[in-house]
Amino acid sequence: MKSNPFYYGGAVGDEHFCNRVSEIKELRTDMLSGLNILIYAPRRFGKTSFVLKTLEELEGERVKYVFLDLMYLSTVDEFINKYFNVLAKSLEEPTDKVVNFFKSILKLRPNINVNFDSAGNPSFSLAMSNEDRTKALEDVLNIPYEFAKNGQKIVVVFDEFQEIVGLELESKLRSVIQRHGDKVAYIFMGSKKSLLHQMFLDKSRPFYKSVKHFKIQEIAKESWREFVASKFAATGKRIDDGYIDAIFRLTKGFPYYTQQFAYELWNMTDERVDDEIFAKTQNTIMEREEDLFAVEWDNLTPNQKKSVKIILDKGGKSLYDEQYLAKYQIKSGSFQTALGGLVKKDIIDKTASEGYYFQDPLFEFWMRGRNG
Which CATH class is domain 20-215? Predict the structure, then answer.
């Protein structure tokens, strides 16, 4: 039995990765130049896969990278130890050399704890007092720069970077890494665009004008056509372009959703995709997303719910239509406030050409199904 050629639910690479050739080339150049970069895109847009794929392309260029997800960190101590651990592991040296290297650069010389799991893999942490915490933080933040002094190019990736605000480390982090120059490239990623914009576009914030803004776009329909059709064909199945276009209309090129749809469609197809198989796949996926979307809807205020319906009705443009405001019984000022709240919750966004649009295409599809 042939295995499913599509994958979703985690970072994808190699044969599961679709396109982004020009974007990878640009990001690769930026990393080698030591630029600090902000990458933002909605959830399920493939940010992590894109960055990891680019880092893979740098193999052989004397580049090492560190990847830290900030999403589940709640204290400064957790940040220090989690960052220290991933820094230590990124060196890919024998454990005793790692420990000796860190002892040579940690000015406070806190105790370095090394624990091994059942497979013999080490994890590293620091034993420090409350008095030592501030200095230990600065020492750990400077580790990439100290390591780069040996001629090694370092790339540090902070995922869900907006979470650093809750740790009250925004100013400290900025003050330290600005001294690292082009020796260390920092990649700041996140899915909460409204928060990231505040961090990097507000003149009063530490990271104002400190990065290159790198916005990744949807993968083009033509690329998905080639990718999906070739995967079906290579496994003895067939899908016509019309069905791939229908997937794209639903997912709008979001890698997670497109791979998810293709994965489930492949599972349900014996030989060739038809209307019945496509409809069954679509229903299955929407049923699985139902609980998540229902929670998002329930978390909206009454005026935000009315505003969502107006956006659906008006296609995101010319929203201040008295007829629609009267239909949903909402005043202009309240509507404006509700739109701002939806942007902050990352439910919607706005462009000059498209007007307001939903950040999650499947949430929009789910809403249209309930809006009649």
Answer: alpha beta
Residue 141 has which token pair? 């933040």
Mean pLDDT of 42-67: 85
Direct distance between the N- and C-terminal alpha carbons of the chain, in angstroms, rounded to an integer = 42
Beta bridge partner(s), residue 122: 116
Question: Furthest-apart CA pair in the chain: how many Å?
Answer: 72
62-71, 105-114, 146-155, 204-213, range with the lowest pLDDT: 105-114
The one-character DSSP state at 141 is: H
Check whether domain 300-370 has CATH 1.10.10, yes or no: yes
Could you tell me which residue, 186 or 132, shows the higher pLDDT?
186
The neighbour count for residue 275, using CB atoms within 10 Å, is 10
**Residues of each domain in the chain carrying CATH 1.10.10:** 300-370
The type of residue at 60 is G
Tokens of 366: 């789910």
**Helix/strand/coil for 125:** strand
10 vs 18: CA distance, rounded Å: 14
Q: Where are the alpha helices (DSSP H) in the chain?
A: 21-32, 47-57, 76-90, 95-105, 133-148, 170-177, 193-201, 221-234, 241-251, 255-268, 275-298, 302-314, 322-327, 332-344, 361-370
Residue intervals in the chain for CATH 1.10.8: 221-295
CA atoms within 13 A on the CB side of 181: 4
Asked whether the beta carbons of 149 and 139 are under 8 A apart, the reply is no
Residue 113, phi then psi, degrees to nearest 5 = -95, 135
